[in-house]
Amino acid sequence: MNILDELEWRGAINQQTDEEGLRELTNEKDIALYCGIDPSGDSMHVGHLIPFMILKRFQLAGHRPVILIGGGTGSIGDPSGRNSERVLQTMDQIEMNANKLSSQMRQLFEAGSEHSGIKLVNNYDWLKELSFLDFLRDFGKEFNINTMLAKDVVSSRLDTGISFTEFSYQIIQSVDFLHLFQNEDVQLQIGGSDQWGNITAGLDLIRKKEGAESKAFGLTIPLLLKADGTKFGKSADGAIWLDPEKTTPYEFYQFWFNQDDRDVVKYLKYFTFLSKEEIETLAEQVETEPHKRAAQKALAEEMTRFVHGQDALDEAIKISQALFSGEIQELTADQIAATFKDVPSSEAPAGEHGLVEFLVDITKIEPSRRQAREDIKNGAIRLKGIQVKDVDYTVTEDDSFDGRFVIVRKGKKKYFLVHLV
Hints:
By secondary structure, the protein is of the alpha/beta class. Helix content is 46%, strand content 14%. It folds into 3 domains: 3-221, Rossmann fold, CATH 3.40.50; 234-325, Orthogonal Bundle (Tyrosyl-Transfer RNA Synthetase); 345-420, Structural Genomics Hypothetical 15.5 Kd Protein In mrcA-pckA Intergenic Region, Chain A (Roll), CATH 3.10.290.10. The chain is elongated.
């Protein structure tokens, strides 16, 4: 199967230039292609993954991916998808972010392995050598203002305003495509749907500089929307990051596991490397046995393994099973700290405390002693996953995790994290 056939089946192509020419080229040889990301933050989130999953599919099909970290363009600011100017970052911050994104990319694309074929580049390396006069004479002369104004990314900002800095972004991205075409034999640029104008501008520049018959192509990925019409990539608590310090592997796993039945098959096609047959089997299970959530489980396992590795996946599954069963006593203190970081929390002095006093006076988990006694007698209170029904029970260090935390569960789902100080 040609790589384009697979992408079409997965619903991963929005627009492309000269489909017949690109299909012919990818049948003839393994090509070099690129996708870029600006270091506007110190981590990718799952929304950033969308075009890079396509780049990964090309890699697995034997093609040569080039990943561009926009140390230069990141200092300018991409106006795409925004209705206001970006706040410029310092060059030190951009460099730090670029290093962190590069590290994430090396892991995802298995840099250093024999079969990776990957190359990471930073456009700051060639843009910093470009003088202002050279920029205007060699490249600015090739761009028609009327054409630039007609691009969606610019036209959508004309009412609110756009600086010359961000207006020039499409020229600079075009210079990137030309540079990679000339120096890395890159013939295809991949990007999100909002990058179409920048990609086609780059193709125009290549043809002007290298000749009208130059074999260069562009391909964009559809905007990924959830079944409710909202943009994919965020949870109720915000962005889902690839950095495990920002989003733990457990949280990452749960994000994918909690996807809607209406979306999960689409995400299996977009984000996993499962075969067509495997995905069709899971799609059938969504229809016939949705309560088993087999598709969501497969999606969560594939994505957590891909981003964080097998060990992190095993830990995420262990935590998930412990929370589902309520037997959290099997978890370590570090796992508790990561898993319950967002639940209501309080502090308590280390030492022994009567359970009623602990719940009411110290942690404020219960509103009154009467309510605390009632909940205890009814079996609604658990410490370290163990039900306590004795109103005279004494909370000791044995109820904690390594003397650091006490986890109180009230009812079926309400958890409270108590830091011992």
